[in-house]
Amino acid sequence: MTVRVGFLGAGLIATFHSKMLRRSGTDVAWAGVWDPDEGRRAAFAQASGATPCASEEEVLESCDAAYVCTWTAEHRRLVEAAVARGLPVFCEKPLSTDLAGATAMADVVRGAGVTNMVGLIMRRSPACNLARDLIADPASGRVMSVVFRDDQFIPVQGSYRSTWRGDRALAGSGTLLEHAIHDLDILEFLAGRVASVSARSANFHGLDGIEDSVAATLSLVDGGVGSLVSVWHDILERPSLRRMEVFCERALVVLDEPDDWWGPVRWTRLGGEAGSLEAEGLVAECERRGIEMPNADGDFIRAVERGEPVHPDFDDALRAHVLADAVYRSAASGGDSVPVL
Ligand SMILES: NC(=O)c1ccc[n+]([C@@H]2O[C@H](COP(=O)([O-])OP(=O)(O)OC[C@H]3O[C@@H](n4cnc5c(N)ncnc54)[C@H](O)[C@@H]3O)[C@@H](O)[C@H]2O)c1
Predict the structure, then answer these.
(1) What is the CATH number of the domain that holds 140?
(2) Is 203 helix (H, G, I), strand (E, B) or coil?
(3) For residue 316, is it within any domain?
(4) DSSP 122
(5) Is there a single domain that holds both residue 133 and residue 272?
(6) The pTM of the whole model exceeds 0.90
């Protein structure tokens, strides 16, 4: 069965998904695309072969599955319109500008029973997956501490070619929700559930409601502790970088710059075992360990064909929203410990 995909939003991430779909090897066809920005709509249509449409409804009429790739504030309305028609839906992260919206969206999608997926793409990173396997190895012992840092230049400039991330009404908030929601998701993917958070935030750029520096300390359900720092600065040479260190009882696993996808991943284990892998060597090691990381867009299309679930889904994204909300509530209180339910 050929799956006809429709696109709502024709910017940076829509273009990424369109390219990944083309490389996925699935039986997919491009249906309609709608973006109120005529230039983007036309450029996307020309590059992908999608049909430029005059409205959201026209896109939803034309497709078997919908990609919601608009700025965040529009996600909820468009997801609800898609699932009201029984359409499977891929929605970008964050689901919504706040936890209430994300909860409502997850409820609607769950209730509709449609295949759904969210762009928490770090779960498909070879570097994160090798790190996860090393941490999960019983020889490493329990997770004692995690140290996560992500930073990027504030994405209202440069390669982002848009400014909506500086507008609270469109983005919801700043670096934690818009960028570090990936880290909150990956942190639990690597190190297990978070039990409580205590956080502080700051705003250097003066954009209303758009925090650009967040520091959170975390207690893990299994006894470990950790920290997450997320910052939006003005160093245009640093578009998006991450460093993650996970200390286990008998191992240290580090995911380092320059690339949170291709590595390097470095590790040291009690007894002298040590390694460092990146790029092709990293992928080969993942394959040797039987770690599967199919193209996420291909996975979505295959799940649509079979009418099956696929991950990360709206419930996975809702969990990341719950964590983000706890961090924001703690920061608003000046650092009180907030339990994560
Ligand atoms: N998973 C990731 O790593 C990742 C990376 C980048 C962006 N994102 C997310 O993807 C979403 C889009 O970000 P982007 O970087 O592509 O932004 P962008 O500015 O490049 O594109 C967003 C587009 O949405 C369009 N739009 C707004 N309202 C619309 C509507 N009602 N219907 C159709 N189009 C509409 C805008 O005109 C704009 O062209 C955001 O939620 C962002 O957080 C995720």
Answers:
(1) 3.30.360.10
(2) coil
(3) no
(4) G
(5) yes
(6) yes
